[in-house]
Amino acid sequence: MPKRPSRPTQRDIADLAGVSITTVSHVVNDTRTVAPATREAVLAAVEQTGYTGDVIARSLVTGGTQTIGLAVPLSGSPHIGTLVQAVEREAAAAGYTVLLSDTHDCADTERAVVRALRAHRIEGVVLVSAPDDRDVVDELLTAGVPTVLLDRLTTRSDIDQVGPENIQTMSALTEHVAARAHRRIGLVSGPEGQVTSDERVLGYRLGLGRARVPWSPELVVTGEPSRDGGAAALATLLELPEPPTAVLAADDAMAAGVVVEARRRGLRIGTDLALACFDEPEWSDLVDPPLTTVAQAVADMGGEAMRLLLARLKDPEREPETVRLPPAWRHRTSCGCPPENPTP
Questions:
Q1: Which of 73, 96, 119, 228 could form a disulfide with 105 if both were Cys (CB 3.0 to 4.6 A apart)?
Q2: How many CA within 13 A on the CB side of residue 6?
Q3: What single-letter DSSP state applies at residue 320?
């Protein structure tokens, strides 16, 4: 049986670079200034051997692993991948490694994932929180783990968080559709009790008021934020004695369901039924007619979350901060507008 290759050590690096182990240690741990030529020789040996060191052992000396945990529902929103990439990019620029874990959008799984990350001595956590996970967040704060909530905002004021601006954005979207003379405007939204859903419903109501359109509770249908949920919500709205002539979808998954159900019923989007969406699905400009949306600043949210975490690591006593980033208007024609009208 062939002998298993051994893991490279600092001794291997020292022999290859022609320096002492102490010098190698100073270079890889950045604990003392080393002559540029010597440093380059050590780094070349590290690159040649693939040496990574022992992060956990080094953390016992330096007090940190330069690692943060990122806990997200990987099968959730389509923009999760963009959030992950943005966090990793910002972390790498600051010299941090990211440990990624899937919460499956379940509070119990999230709790287990977060505890596993803490066992790896992560220095902080960026978390896309699952519904009903208050206990998980409380546990992180009680344990003194620097934490930033990403994407899904909460009403808490004791933790850093980054997400979209929901209320004024949904209000503007509602006003835009109302300006096309629609007076029966439906809303398909996620579950009640979630801050994101509740804020978007509030924005919808605010927009109706600003447009002087009466509020009708039966025109708001909540459900699972999925294609099936969106289809079921539209079916409920279309069964009303006076169905809506326009519909707003509170997220991209539900918008897909609205399109599917409308087509199943032979309704023409933009003509028989106006449609606009909070979110920017990848397929927005591929359908006919193209979908009018407001696009969340997803990459900016991920980067800002990591910047907030770095600020918390630097100053643990700083006041918690909530950052709301405004989405961008993407006017197309599913709302019934001609393409030359560029603003809400």
A1: 73
A2: 5
A3: P
Query: How does residue 5 score in pLDDT terms, banded at 50, 70 and 90?
Result: low
Q: What is the 3-state secondary structure (H, E, C) of 129-148?
A: CCCCCHHHHHHHHHCCCCEE
pLDDT in tens, 82-110: 999 999 999 999 999 999 999 998 989 99
What is the amino acid identity at position 31? T
DSSP state string for 237-296: HHTSSS--SEEEESSHHHHHHHHHHHHHTTPPBTTTBEEEEES--TTTTTSSSPPEEEE-
Give the separation between CA 344 and CA 212, rounded to whole angstroms. Answer: 16
pLDDT band per the 50, 70, 90 thresholds, residue 2: very low
Cβ 203 vs Cβ 167: under 8 Å: yes
DSSP state of 339: T
What mean pLDDT is predicted for residues 139-146?
Answer: 93
Where would I find the H helices in 50-194?
A: 55-62, 80-93, 107-119, 134-142, 167-178
> In the structure encoding, which two tokens stand for residue 88, read together?
């990793």
What is the Rg, in whole angstroms, of the alpha carbon atoms belonging to the chain? Answer: 25
Q: Which two tokens stand for residue 7?
A: 């893991």
CA distance 197 to 175: 18
Whether this model's pTM surpasses 0.70 = yes
Q: Within 13 Å, how many C-alpha atoms sit on residue 126's CB side? A: 33
Return the ∠ at Cα 150 (arms to 148 and 153), rounded to 5°. Answer: 100
